[in-house]
Amino acid sequence: MAKTIAALIEDRFGLPTTVGADRPAEGTVAQLLAHRTHRRYKTDPVPDDVLEIALAAALSAPSKSDLQQVGVVLVKDRAKQATIGGWIPDMPWIATAPLFMVFCGDHRRIRRISGELRHRPFPNDTLDMFMNAAVDAGLVLHGFITAAEALGLGCCPISVVRNHVEKLSELLELPAGVFPVAGLTVGYPSQPGWISLRLPPALTVHTDRYNDADLPAELDAYDRRREGRHATPPSGQRFVERFGVAEPYGWSEDKARQYSVPERHNFGPFIRGHGFGLA
Questions:
Q1: Number of other CB atoms surrounding residue 193 within 10 Å
Q2: CATH code of the region 48-188
């Protein structure tokens, strides 16, 4: 275990720093910096009280205008969980995790409150309201992961459930106005997770104006740092039949290949047909 905040920052970004060298690696900041991805779990179930605590902490997240536009579906029916896992066979941890959850944006609740329960007009069927619900769900998802890790659990978000948004919506009986943002596998880790090296703050943090003038150089250095820590073998490269084997094969090449083909083009039509005008 790293002994200082500086050591955790260095591990996360692969860059030397003296910031936090005088601070012990403890508390919430250390937990966030030490976050690991977990895809292998013990068979032990997640106790109900532990789950309730993590959910309470997650639902304490900030919410736009206090609208609280989030819905969390606990998939406790193992047959349903297996069905979802069957759609995504290259992620076997979906079907085998002790708990699978789906975090949703929920725009239905405020619509029912406004029209059905309080008989008030609701001229806000907009893209902004969709974004508010999606962000609320994302904040709750992150809050749950943080709380779960503090309680000894491990998690792995699953955005690829949106590749199957129509089937997932039907399986979980999501009504109009409720849409999946991400799934989440949860359980007690059976082995250490790994730290995903992040882009340098030089690319993601800007002062007073957006500036990506140094993108080529910073990205090249980041690719080399990531490859040095987690090299991708030729068998793990995307679309080799189309682009060939790259050497080196860094993060930027991987992401460029990932988005060289259409992905989730069904999501927009699904949302527009699922109760959102997006005006």
A1: 17
A2: 3.40.109.10
DSSP conformational letter for 191: S
pTM: 0.94
Domain borders along the chain are 1-34, 48-188, 215-279
- Residues in CB range of 211: below 8 A, 6 or more apart: none
pLDDT in tens, 62-88: 999 999 999 999 999 999 999 999 999
Do residues 122 and 115 lie in contact, with contact meaning Cβ atoms separated by under 8 Å?
A: yes
- Report the DSSP pairing between strands 178-187 and 70-75: unpaired
- CA pair distance 42, 189, nearest whole angstrom: 6
State the CB neighbour count (10 A cutoff) for residue 152. 9
DSSP 196: P
Q: Helix, strand, coil: what percent of the chain each, to 5? A: 45, 15, 40
